[in-house]
From TrEMBL:
Alphabetical keyword list: ATP-binding, Nucleotide-binding, Transport
This protein's record includes keyword ATP-binding: yes
Family of this protein: Belongs to the ABC transporter superfamily.
Positions of the ABC transporter domain: 9-239
The protein, known as: ABC-2 type transport system ATP-binding protein
Organism, scientific name: Tepidibacter thalassicus DSM 15285
Amino acid sequence: MGEKMSEIINIENVTKKYGDFIAVDKLNLNIKKGSFIGLLGPNGAGKTTLISILIGLLKPSDGKVFIMGQEMSRNNVFLKKQIGIVPQHINLDKDLTVKENLILAAKLFRIKGKEREIQIEKLLDYMDLKKVENRISRNLSGGMKRKLMIAKALIHDPEILFLDEPTVGVDLNARRKIWDTLKVMKNMGKTIILTTHYIEEAEHLCEKIALMDKGRIFYNDTSENLKSSLGKYTVEYFDEHKITKYKYFKNIEDAKIFSSSIEENFILREVSLEDVFYNFTNRKVT
């Protein structure tokens, strides 16, 4: 019972079909309150479709989503107030300033007067946007735009934050700053669900990683457990057709014995999360 109480999101047998195409396929996942989950998968895996279902934007063809014990639907106003959303595509009013974008977001959630002023000032400081508060948002750098989108999503102090590719198109420095912000939010007790193409991002931020392909989550565990399920060492080498191959080993001795038989160049290294992802997405998912 205690375990169930700690879960903030329950996805029960959710399927989403578009004609004959199955975007999400009989998916089950439970997410604990205060956890940071990374949803990792190739293009077309169903990540964005799943997020759209979780935030009530799409109705599943079958199955149900429960958040905080209530069924999510397009009309559930209470749940929508508990959720902050950072979409994949820029959702700023490009003709408004940074501060005006936040004022508009606050008005949509009916945050008024002094409370609105305090919250906006807090977010401008928190997201390091104070120095550009009067800049028209079309003139912001990619990193600043992404930070403003996160600030918008936090305007109503939501319990749950959904981020769909939040650092796509930003430089390394901006990405690292966004990572720091997300880590602080996790420490504040927020539940965060992140989709990303950047495997390093998921490994750095997320306590659990769900690997998704062809509409299914086929592995859901910590980064360390995912890696150890494959092995401890990777030998990366060319085969006779000059195609890169990977072989995984539980111990260094076996990896060295195998390596000694390779005539081409090879690399012997520790298993990475990228190895896990490559290995599983190149298998037939059943």
